Every structure is written in C-alpha cells, then in structure tokens.
Amino acid sequence: MSFESTAPDAAEMARRIEGTLQEHPWLVAEDDHGDIVGYAYATGFRGRHAYRFTAETSVYVSPAAQGRGVGSELAIALLDALRASGYRTAVAVITLPNDPSIRMHERVGYREAGRLPAVGWKAGRWNDIGYWHLALGDGDPLEIR
Ligand SMILES: CC(C)(COP(=O)(O)OP(=O)(O)OC[C@H]1O[C@@H](n2cnc3c(N)ncnc32)[C@H](O)[C@@H]1OP(=O)(O)O)[C@@H](O)C(=O)NCCC(=O)NCCS
Fold first, then answer.
1. Which residue has the CA at smallest separation from atom 22 of ligand 1?
2. Which residues line ligand 1 (CB under 6 A)?
3. Mean pLDDT value of segment 110-126
4. What separation in Å is there between the alpha carbon of 102 and the centre of ligand 1?
5. Do 77 and 69 form a contact (C-beta atoms < 8 A)?
6. Does 142 or 85 have the greater pLDDT score?
7. Looking at domain 10-135, does it have CATH number 3.40.190.10?
8. Percent of the chain, pLDDT > 90?
C-alpha cells in the first residue's frame, strides 16, 4: 500500500521522475511488447546531510505482471546502480502487512531492521511500517556528494 491518498496522474509522475533523476536512479521494466510493467527508484533517506550515503528504495509492479520475478529484477538492478554510485545503505519502508513485498525484498538481500506502529492513517485504520535494510558496501564519500 502506498501512503498517498490520490493516485498521481501522468504529469505528476513525469515531474517525480525528472526530480528523482537529478540525483538517484529510476528504472522501468518492459514486457515483450514494450509495455511498462514495473518501475523502481531511489530517493534520499531523510534530509540531513549525514544521510547522503543512504538511499530509500521503492519497487512497483503492475498487478498482471506480479509474481514473475519482475520486482526482484528491478530491485537487483536498482541496488547495482546505487552500489556503482558509492551508496552504503539501502532502506525499504514497507507498509504492513505486505507479505509479497517482504518476500521480494528479503529474496534480494534486505533484512528487517525495525517497525513503527500506527504511523499512517489510511483506509480507515492506523497502519504500521517496517524498515528493511541492505548494506551495499563501504560507501565512498569521494564518489558521491
Ligand atoms: C512487492 C512487489 C513489487 C513484488 O514484485 P513481484 O514482481 O511480484 O515480485 P517477484 O515476482 O520478484 O517475487 C518475489 C517474491 O515475492 C513473492 N510474491 C510475489 N507476489 C506474491 C503474492 N501476491 N503473495 C505472496 N508472495 C508473493 C514471490 O513468490 C517471491 O518469493 P519467493 O522467491 O520466496 O517465491 C509487487 O507485489 C508490487 O508491486 N506490489 C504492490 C506495490 C508494493 O507493495 N510495492 C512495495 C512497496 S514497499
């Protein structure tokens, strides 16, 4: 579940992609017909300067394409891109429960690092989130800002 209340339209998605690509990767997966079936991107994890070696990662796959490895492939490619840019840590924030997301993230190497209860109000109830963590490497301060 996304914590957004209204679905972003195409113009808003274009704006987000452009903004993200200033500093982070945004990847898309296509099927054999060239239709987009999923995407993955990274953003900064919190705003303060000391967090700049950590990226928050997100993966979305269209319902019809789920369960076929697309999400895992996107996640692995995203982690490779972050590693190549010198990032040290990837964090996925998962709204709970979300077994497909937990399995997909753990399959590619993330491990649970803690939960926060009742931090999001959506769909008529309080929702918990969980942090899933993956160490990418040493994090080279010379490679990134
Ligand atoms: C989470 C998500 C990205 C996974 O993508 P995917 O392409 O379906 O994942 P994969 O096919 O690579 O599957 C990876 C693992 O998840 C499991 N999985 C996938 N769909 C599942 C489902 N509906 N129920 C249970 N497990 C599921 C797979 O079995 C596999 O686990 P395994 O290796 O132990 O068998 C996708 O389900 C999705 O877009 N969900 C909605 C958006 C979302 O929640 N994004 C994550 C935000 S943190």
1. 100
2. 58-61, 66-72, 92, 94, 98-101, 103-104, 107
3. 96
4. 8
5. no
6. 85
7. no
8. 88
Question: Ligand 1 center to residue 134 CA distance, Å?
Answer: 17
Residue 124 has pLDDT above 80, yes or no: yes
Domain ranges of the chain: 10-135
Q: How far from 50 is each of 43, 61, 142, 145, CA to CA, in Å?
A: 15, 31, 14, 10
Output the residue whose Cα is nearest ligand 1's atom 43.
60
Lowest average pLDDT, out of 74-78, 129-133, 134-138, 141-145, goes to 141-145
> Pairing mode, if any, of strands 89-96 and 54-61?
parallel
- List Cα–Cα distances, 126 to 21, 102, 130, in angstroms: 32, 19, 14
Ligand 1 centre and the CA of 103: distance in Å? Answer: 6
- How many Å apart are CA 79 and CA 71, to the nearest integer? 12
